[in-house]
Design a protein that fits this description.
Strand content: 15-25%
Largest sheet: 5 strands, mixed
Strand order of the largest sheet: 4-3-2-5-6
Distance between the termini: 83 Å
Order of helices and strands: HEEEEHEHEE
Mean pLDDT: 80
CATH architecture of one domain: 2-Layer Sandwich
Helix content: 25-40%
Structural class: alpha/beta
Low-confidence stretches: none
CATH topology of one domain: Nucleotidyltransferase, domain 5
């Protein structure tokens, strides 16, 4: 007569369903993390079209000029009179870049005056934001 052991050992199995769930969770986590890394300092404006290679600024400050001549520094509304003083507090160093996001229907005079005021505040490098066309 054959004597059985009191406990039979089963071979381990790898379940694939929980592994798929974990992979989808990681995918969703990385997608949300990458969305939070986007530069969202500017306000939506109708940018002019052009060809430009993407440039990564070290510590950018966005100067937004709307079509109705409203001026914003990183979503903070300013006027031409207080633009220089507000920008001085926002610039970490003299090598900081200013991203100019001007609406295509914004008056050119206001854009130039805002850039001159930014230069008075110590800005040396200006990057013009454009909408990429193929």
């Amino acid at each position: 007569m054959k004597i059985r052991k009191s406990r039979e050992y089963k071979r381990g199995r790898i379940e694939i369903i929980p592994m798929i769930d974990v992979m989808f969770f990681l995918l969703a986590t990385f997608m949300l993390a990458s969305l939070s890394m986007q530069n969202l300092h500017s306000l939506p404006v109708n940018l002019p079209q052009g060809h430009a290679s993407p440039i990564q600024a070290k510590t950018p400050v966005t100067l937004t000029i709307r079509s109705d001549s409203q001026i914003f520094l990183d979503k903070t509304q300013v006027t031409l009179d207080n633009l220089a003083t507000t920008l001085k507090t926002m610039l970490p160093n003299t090598d900081a870049s200013i991203i100019v996001a001007a609406d295509s229907s914004a008056p050119n005079g206001v854009t130039v005056q805002a850039m001159l005021k930014a230069r008075e505040a110590g800005a040396q490098h200006f990057l013009i934001a454009v909408k990429h066309v193929d």
